[in-house]
Every structure is written in C-alpha cells, then in structure tokens.
Amino acid sequence: MQTVTLNNGVKMPIIGFGVYQIPDAEECENAVYEALTAGYRLIDTAAGYLNEEAVGRAIKRSGVPREELFITTKLWIQDAGYESAKLAFSKSLKKLQLDYLDLYLIHQPFGDYYGAWRAMEELYREGKIKSIGVSNFLPDRLMDLIVHNEIVPAVNQIETHPFYQQTESASFMKEQGVQHQSWAPFAEGLNNMFGNQVLASIAERHNKSVAQVVLRWLVQRDVVVIPKSVRKERIVENLNIFDFELGVDDIEQISALDTRESLFLSYHDPKFAKMLGTLRVDL
C-alpha cells in the first residue's frame, strides 16, 4: 500500500475506506469487512456518522493485526471543549474496541475547538492517539490554530474533487506541513460526475472507470482519499488504481473542470455556522 508520511513521521495509507452515510449497522459492518478483506488498511469514520460500533465490529471480525491498520475518527461539535473532548474520545475508543487511534480529527471548525485541541495534544503525548488533525478548516482558521498551539495538525480533511480542486488550500497546507485529505472525492455524484465527458474519455483511454481516474488524479496530487461504497465490486475497483498513471494532458483536462466553489456548503455563511453550531446529535 502506498503511503504518505505525516509531519510527525507517522505513515498513512494514501487510500482508505470512508463510511459517511452508511448509518445501517449491518451494512456498514459488512462494507468495512469487505474493504479490509480487499486490502484497505485506512478506515475513516466519525462520532457524527453514528457507525463507530459497526466499524469496530468489522475490524475485530476481519482479524487484521491492529498494527497494520490506520483508524481515523472525528470529534463532533457538541463535544468540542477540553473535558468534553476527552470524554468523547474515550467513548469513541470504546465503540471502536480499540486501545488507541491512529488519527483523531476535529470534525468542524466551530465551538470550543481550542479546548478540544489542548485535550487532543495531551492524548497525543500520552500515546493514545498517533496523530491529531482537523477537518473542514479553511486556511485562515488553520493558520490561527497553528500559531496559537504547540502541535501543528497532521491532516486537514476537506472537500476535494474535480469540480472543487482546492489548489490554493493545497499549496498552503503543503507549506505548513499539513497533509491534504479529500472527503467526497466523487462529489457524491453531483454535476453528473460519472457521466462527465472529459472524465469518461480519460477513463476510456486508460481502460479504467471514472471513479478510478478521479482517485488516481487525487493520489498523483499526494492527496489522501477515502472513497465509500457498499458494493463489493466497487470497493475492490476503487483500490485498483496503482497500475496506471495519468499524463500531463489528462491532468490539464481535469484541471479545467474546477469551478472553485463547493458543491455542498459554505463555511463563510453565518447561517450554516449557526445551523451546525446548534445541531445536537444523539452520540
């Protein structure tokens, strides 16, 4: 498995398996089990996805040695804060049936994420988390966190796909030593991604699927990807991206698809910030 090296020396698989929007426990457990059987070693979940227990059962069922795995989960907004973050971490660890996490992320840049970060720094120093990072942090908030804390986030997981390529954020994160990770690499099928003529023609030239082309494009940018599927054949297909390489022309064509705007939400919108800030999930 190809890896990237994080700013603390920890190696992270460049492709993993995501479980967002797989709330059904049995379906989630089976999907993660199939992913681990297929060869995935990075599994990405979150307290807010409400499926950590299913992920934990799949990990145990797979029989894959713990040291071969890279498990990520995330802290939800309502648990931001020093004490509440520590409690939430323990709860997630118990649900996952693990003794430590490989990566723990602040899920959203709202609430008392400074208190949460201090708690995560302590858990990191205690060896309970191998790496700590963030998700959905824009460059200004990421820099603010870096300037006022001791540990630089190892990862920032942000929306990244052909229609929102995040080139400026990627450059900034590289300068700061923060690993770029993509969520929604397929844009959840929006903008007719799987029917896009540019992507389809590139896929045809390489005898690959559009999904494989998108994942290969991200990997060639050194972006960690976490595609999701509940279909065994797609799970296997998404991992099969290391036997071809996109050329300069391919990459230029994909670059031209960038709209430079999110297809989902705006972190500059106060209404969105209020909605997330007041949302309570039964964790």
TrEMBL record:
A family per Pfam: Aldo_ket_red
Keyword Lipid metabolism tagged: no
Keyword NADP assigned: yes
A molecular function (GO) term: oxidoreductase activity
PANTHER family in UniProt: 2,5-DIKETO-D-GLUCONIC ACID REDUCTASE, NADP-DEPENDENT OXIDOREDUCTASE DOMAIN-CONTAINING PROTEIN
CDD domains listed in its UniProt record: AKR_AKR5F1
EC number: 1.1.1.-
Annotated family: Belongs to the aldo/keto reductase family.
Keywords in alphabetical order: NADP, Oxidoreductase
Protein known as: Aldo/keto reductase
InterPro entries, per the entry: AKR, Aldo/ket_reductase_CS, NAD(P)_OxRdtase_dom_sf, NADP_OxRdtase_dom
NADP-dependent oxidoreductase domain residues: 15-257
Signal peptide residues on this chain, from the entry's feature table: none
Gene3D superfamilies recorded: NADP-dependent oxidoreductase domain
